[in-house]
Amino acid sequence: MSTEEAAGPRPRRAVSDPGLVDDLAARIHAQIRSGDIPIGTWLRQEALANTFGVSRTPVREALRKLQADRIVDVFPHRGALVRGPTAVDLRETYTIRGELEGLAAELAATRITDEQLRRLRAAEAALRAGLDELRAFVATEGVGAVRSGPWDAADLEFRDAMLDACGVERLQRMAAELRDAFPRNLVWAALAEEPSLLDESLAQRARIRAAVERRDPVAARRWMTDHCRRTGSLVAEAFERRQAVEDLPDPRDIRARLGRPTQG
Amino acid sequence: MSTEEAAGPRPRRAVSDPGLVDDLAARIHAQIRSGDIPIGTWLRQEALANTFGVSRTPVREALRKLQADRIVDVFPHRGALVRGPTAVDLRETYTIRGELEGLAAELAATRITDEQLRRLRAAEAALRAGLDELRAFVATEGVGAVRSGPWDAADLEFRDAMLDACGVERLQRMAAELRDAFPRNLVWAALAEEPSLLDESLAQRARIRAAVERRDPVAARRWMTDHCRRTGSLVAEAFERRQAVEDLPDPRDIRARLGRPTQG
DNA sequence: CAGGCGGTGTTTGGATCCAAAACAGTTCGG
DNA sequence: CCGAACTGTTTTGGATCCAAACACCGCCTG
Q1: Count of Cβ atoms closer than 10 Å to residue B63 Cβ
Q2: Does A14 map to a domain?
Q3: Does one domain contain both B51 and B139?
């Protein structure tokens, strides 16, 4: 019987070359996260191949990775569709994030280093600065013109610092996976429309940071979990409001955004 | 500029056809989970293609999916290597599982239906029966001869029933992902070597079931988290013992199990 | 006029082909 | 005697090719 094992080559350098497919997947994912490729978009293999200057073969493999990460849905003989969350998806995701990041905060409170603590404080400061700037921007330009800015970056940095401090690699990865489960604009668009919510969000994070600072695992976890759940409720509610306005036929229905085959 | 969107076809039936690639990935994954393909095996594309009667193209896409699921490591120009956990991997995974399944138990306690509760009880009964049988088997045949049996199946069924009862789809998926992160035999081989541990494991589950039955979310969560952490400790310790005996050069080192290219 | 039917163009899916990379065994030089 | 370079073989990676599936459109029929 032909076995598929047969031990073979031994890799000298582990991950020096990222590999074309992984790079492609990361790039496509980035465009989806940023909103450049909107939810409900059909990803055409040939178009992607052209834009990245490669053939369809590596594109197809990249799409399989994105499928496994639940970024796109692949329909046999039809193509890959960029997944969009439903309101319950949002709630569920934030609930789970509350658990995972809560655990991370708890662990971080017991084992954070001084260096990591400095990073956390810096992120909080950046968050505060970004909030001021964003509020000023909204006051002059309006909510609609808001684009991904320093507040969003600081937001990610704060979370990354916390996850890094907890020291559990798998936890980092899983939390990141949840964070990237849907485009960023869905998140901060919900919060930016009411600046007072951002104040609240910042205050919650200050509480978390303080708890970690004084090495209080129980409080750190509690505040972090609360923070995630509260944020999740806000995002989900905003999403539902928005969905009520533009009447998408069905939240779960794939037929949304069908348009026409060639948009010429 | 050529855009990669261009709205297109609308899928009629959602998931009627699994698709060859998904099927392949599932089959390979199953063989890894069952231990038929051991950890550290180099997966040769052509060999896999031959065994499944297809060409290398779909095999490569399937491997990309497994890579995204962290089942294999893909090294550019070298191949795909079946990942094996380290002891810290095991501990981390069970810690996180404690959180997720704890949450699941908490939710299940509040919203489980009578039908689901019946399923949970049935799984517990099967677990008990499987335990008796396994103990008898170990007494006559010895630990070494133990293979995946009804106890393992009942174990999975109990967890699935609980996750199903919690009603959060993403939670189900993430817990399943953790459960399948490494071969099953690593798990129950650790527990089977000391039957009293299985008694303890069963008692813990009875406690959980009882808490869910009386709709006590706090207790359900507590017992479930405890159960997962305890199991994780046992598995990790057994793994460390085993690893100490067969002196693998380095836990993280890829060069393990190098052998020769063609094992003819 | 509505609904079913087949033609046509487009897109995906799998197989095949070829070049580049890596392993293994050998040879050459110190 | 040991190590570095060379060569042959194996395997992966990307491109290309062809068939099958699907969407769109017009036509035909009831």
Answers
A1: 25
A2: no
A3: no
- Do B166 and B100 fall into the same domain? yes
Contact criterion met (CB below 8 Å) for A127 and A160:
no
Q: Does residue B199 share a domain with residue B71? A: no
Q: pLDDT tens digit string along A148-191? A: 578 889 999 999 999 999 999 999 999 999 999 999 888 877 77
Is residue A124 within 8 A of residue A210, CB to CB? The reply is no
CB B61 within 8 A of CB B234: no
Strand pairing partners for B43? Answer: B80
Chain B closest-CA separation from residue A162 CA (Å): 16
Is residue B25 domain-shared with residue B136, that is, in the same domain?
Answer: no
CB burial of A121-154 (b: ≥16 within 10 Å; e: otherwise) equals eebbebbbebbeebbebbeeeeeeebeeeebbeb
Cβ within 7 Å of strand D: which of A 28-57? 49, 54-57
**Count: domains in chain A:** 2
Q: Where are the beta strands (DSSP E) in A42-199?
A: 42-43, 72-75, 79-82
**CATH code for the domain in which residue B235 is found:** 1.20.120.530
Query: Do the domain assignments include residue B115?
Result: yes
Cβ distance B43 to B63 under 8 Å? yes
Answer yes or no: is B224 within a domain: yes
Same-domain status, A95 and A113 = yes
Looking at chain A, the number of H-run helices and the number of E-run strands are 10, 3
In a shared domain, residues A113 and A222:
yes
In this complex, the residue with its CA at the shortest distance from the C1' of nucleotide D20 is A77
Q: Which is nearest to A160 in space by CA: A104, A110, A78?
A: A104
* Cβ atoms within 10 Å, residue A89: 19
| Chain A residues touching B81 at Cβ < 8 A | 11
Tell me the CATH number at B29.
Answer: 1.10.10.10
Asked whether residue B150 falls in the same domain as residue B30, the answer is no
Could you tell me the mean pLDDT of each successive run of 10 residues in chain B, 264 residues long? 40 54 97 94 97 97 97 95 93 97 97 96 94 80 67 92 96 95 85 82 96 97 97 92 67 43 34
Residue type, A5: E
Residues of B in contact with A19 (CB under 8 A): 74, 76
- Range of A25's domain? 20-82
For residue B155, what pLDDT is reported?
A: 92
Distance (Å, whole) CA B93 – CA B229: 10
